[in-house]
Design a protein that fits this description.
alpha/beta; 5 helices
Length: 144
């Protein structure tokens, strides 16, 4: 029996053994990636949603994102379309801010830069984002 946390596989069976209870179903024929995703889905994931205008993206933003990526299974970086605090608009276009964020977070595997608010019309309110991400990650423990 392998040590806890090892990945065990044959040509068509892959399992992540975290404990004795994670015994595979007989005849499982998914890929290793699917097995990993299924194992992760069984646990309550901790998801951080970090919103802001990111106009411009600063080292302080990047330091916060890096810190969150160490503490959470997934970090969603959420640039707003129109900040309720900056209704005059942002200097940089939403797509440009997304590109900048994706470039500076490319080395962080569990960080996703979302276009969800950029695609929406009007002012971006946190309450809308909370509702959206509660629906998107119903089993997750969300932090904003």
């Amino acid at each position: 029996m392998p040590e806890k946390g090892h990945i065990v596989g044959t040509a068509n069976v892959f399992i992540i053994r975290k404990n004795a209870a994670s015994v595979p179903q007989k005849g499982y024929k998914g890929s290793m990636k699917e097995a990993v995703q299924k194992e992760k889905a069984k646990k309550v994931q901790k998801v951080a949603v970090f919103g802001g205008s990111f106009d411009p993206v600063t080292n302080a933003h990047l330091n916060i994102i890096r810190g969150l990526s160490k503490r959470f299974a997934r970090v969603v970086v959420l640039p707003c379309n129109v900040s309720p605090f900056k209704q005059g608009g942002c200097s940089a276009d939403g797509e440009d801010r997304v590109k900048m964020l994706r470039k500076v977070t490319a080395d962080l595997e569990n960080v996703k830069v979302s276009k969800w608010e950029i695609k929406r019309d009007g002012v971006s309110y946190s309450s809308d984002a909370v509702r959206h991400y509660k629906e998107k990650y119903p089993e997750a423990e969300l932090s904003f």
